[in-house]
């Protein structure tokens, strides 16, 4: 199933000391943290709070697959825009396309992009389950 219309969510972020390596460049794994924050805020913008969702449904999203490509480095104090956009909806998983962009170099400030597959699981057993219909409706 494909989303009706891809809407891309943007989350502003500044690079701090803790995000960089000894050379003052964002440590590669931190882009996954940036992507996680943007996905969480994207869901929140749709009225989906993950802790409440777990309490109400007994289910939760978990990351099952990532693919990340690095284009250019971000540095200390850079302002970024991190995006999240639904690319594909399945019965038990979603594929989210994400980018980290340099805010000062728009529109061609691509630093990093990737796709993240998040699966829906029963929180108690961690077994895959169907994404609840009301959640699918909120996402589309």
From TrEMBL:
Keyword Hydrolase attributed: yes
UniProt cross-references to InterPro entries, sorted A to Z: 4-hydroxybenzoyl-CoA_TE, HotDog_dom_sf, Tol-Pal_acyl-CoA_thioesterase, YbgC/YbaW
Entry annotated with the keyword Hydrolase: yes
Transmembrane segments: none
Entry superkingdom: Bacteria
GO molecular function: fatty acyl-CoA hydrolase activity
Keywords from the named record: Hydrolase
Family: Belongs to the 4-hydroxybenzoyl-CoA thioesterase family.
Name this polypeptide is given: Tol-pal system-associated acyl-CoA thioesterase
Organism annotation: Variovorax terrae
């Amino acid at each position: 199933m494909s989303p009706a219309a891809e809407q891309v969510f943007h989350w502003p972020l500044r690079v701090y000391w803790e995000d960089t390596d000894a050379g003052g460049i964002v440590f590669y794994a931190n882009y996954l943290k940036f992507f996680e924050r943007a996905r969480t805020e994207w869901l929140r913008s749709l009225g989906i709070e993950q802790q409440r969702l777990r309490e109400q449904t007994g289910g939760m999203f978990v990351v099952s697959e990532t693919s990340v490509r690095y284009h250019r480095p971000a540095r200390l104090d850079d302002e970024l825009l991190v995006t999240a956009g639904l690319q594909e909806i399945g019965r038990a998983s979603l594929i989210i396309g994400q980018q980290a962009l340099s805010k000062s170099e728009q529109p061609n400030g691509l630093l990093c992009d990737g796709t993240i597959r998040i699966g829906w699981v029963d929180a108690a057993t961690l077994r895959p389950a169907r994404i609840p219909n009301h959640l699918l409706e909120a996402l589309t």
